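Database export, one record per block. Field names are fixed; values are copied verbatim from the stored entry.
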Amino acid sequence: KTSPSVSGKYGSISLSMPMYSDPFIDYDVLNRSESIDWMEMLRQGAATPVTPDSSTTNQGAYSWTLSIKPQLSTTALSPYVSNLSISSFSSVYNFSYKNDTAITNAFPTSPQRIFYYPDKFTLYSISGGISGTPLTWTSAVTVAEKDKEIEDPLKKFGVLRAPWEEETEASSASSTASIQKPFMLTVPELNQKFDIGRNSGLKITWNYSLTPTSAAELNYGTNDWASSDDIDLSDVKSILMRVRTDGNTGLTISDPNNNMFSLSGGISGSMQWQDHTYIDTEADEYDTPDKIKTEKFADYRATTWTTSWTHNTTVNPLFWSPAWKTSNIQYSLGGLLARSNFDEAASDTDSPSWETIYGEWNKDNITKHSIAVNFGVSILDKMQSLHLDTDLPPRDSALNMNSTINAWISTTTVKTVIKDPFEAEPQYQPASFSETLTFKQGYSFSQYLVYDPAYSDWTTANSTLTLSKFSATYSSSRTPGFTLDTATGWKERSSTDAKLRPGAIAASFSTALKKDNLLNKRLGFSLNPSISLNLDLQRYTYSSLNFSLSFTLNVTNFLSLSMGTTSQNQEMYRYLSFLPFFREHASAIPKDNSKTDNFFLDLINSFRFDDEELRKSSGFKLKSFSFSATHNLGDLDAKLTIGLSPYREGMEYKFDTQVAFLLQWLPISELKTELTYESKTDTFATK
């Protein structure tokens, strides 16, 4: 295998060229496992070796790939061309494999029974892009600006003052100065102003974008290659070429300063050409005129072009109001301009015919026709919003409403949809209501409701409480419910019994205790317990309790110990059979007198190593246990890992134990070589 690559200022070149003698070389030689499962050998003894699966031994198809990614500079062409790029240029030589029947019959286990052969050669595949904004025009208006703020001379006119009030020192000093210099000439202060140009008013921009792609594929005629000796690179079956270009151009007129309005329109389109420039008429795939016609007609159908247009208008009538400036009205219209269609009836193999289809005023050609009204107001730094939008004819009309109200710690959201609002019988879709109370960061309560007019009833009701590291959720939904059959299990009732029923109660708690600065940062540990409870209020036997605990102890630069365990209890219904949710089905399951209904007593029984029967009767089961120890040896790390998990075999459970030992050499940063190139002196330097 070889994968050289070179990168520089003007781009990069990479090559991937693996070479395989047969599909089994990796498994037999390169990736041969040297590990031995001693525990499995001791447990099972000398057993018949298992033949490896073909999916692990077969390398499969592979390819040679040459990729070039140039980096082009467009500084000199700006703004007419702001981006000019060749995103990818590649050439790929694909290899597949087939069975050599002669060798397989003579030597069934020979690696040469399967050989590789060239299947397809992608001569080139190139994609790029060019875009720019040739026109950006902004009008300039004059704005008068004051040089200095002048105090209003009548500001204190009419202010009452008691006759016995003493003058301030400042006013007395001012009066004295005026008396001492009665003939001083004082120049009156002028209110000066001047006009300056500023980017304001209209802004007009015109932009464009093109993304061309092209590819050529050479396919070999491989049907007659029964062995590697039959491979003939001159046996070309066909050459297929594809060219595609996507582009768009748009004009925008806006008011950037006041954001009073924005008008935009554009035209976009795509054009694709596909053709088999060479077909071997002696190949099995093209040995009849009908087969050639089928292939050529597929090319003609893929050769197509289409254009579309769009228009968007946004008006902000309350742009002058700081509180209402986010309110606006939006109108959008767009659809098909024209497209081509291959006319099979008027075409033959050598004379294709296309027709032009122009856009019409119908819902198939008009892809978007809508109007939206957004009201937004800021009250006491809280944003209130109301959004209304609807599709207009010829589109199928649907009125969408979304409102959000923020007040103090409350956030209320209402959403609904009305289909065919302008018809005699509009269709009212389900409406959702959500309320969230945020007390402080990490402490909140939320309620989510859905009302469906079709049922004239509530169909969803969910509540969520979050208190820092603890969270609880109650959910209910419209469902017919379930009944428990001791022979077949849970069965759903008839749909006529559907109503809003309790669904589930879920609660979880997780925390982390971490100390890494003990003994002058020489010792550290972390403890991470978590517990989660899920009560299914319809199929109560699906309820479960999960508990996990992980512990890590670190001795700096010496030793790291980690332990993790997970346990699960899937018999929570036994402890909660007295609750109203479970009481309906409590008698459906025969009661096992050997198992206790006391949660805490059952938890204690799970640790009764002195009584195996009590321990097995407990609903708390160990799901996994892991232990790892890592010893730092300077340049090496020695790691021991032990994993334990139960599995069922017949009517009893056994433990699957995995033990692994790893000796890893750590990379040494001091042992490295850096190669640099100096373009001025045209030399390489190493350090």
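Remark 1: The longest helix spans residues 289-302.
Remark 2: Residues 46-56, 142-150, 167-199 have pLDDT under 50 and may be disordered.
End of record.
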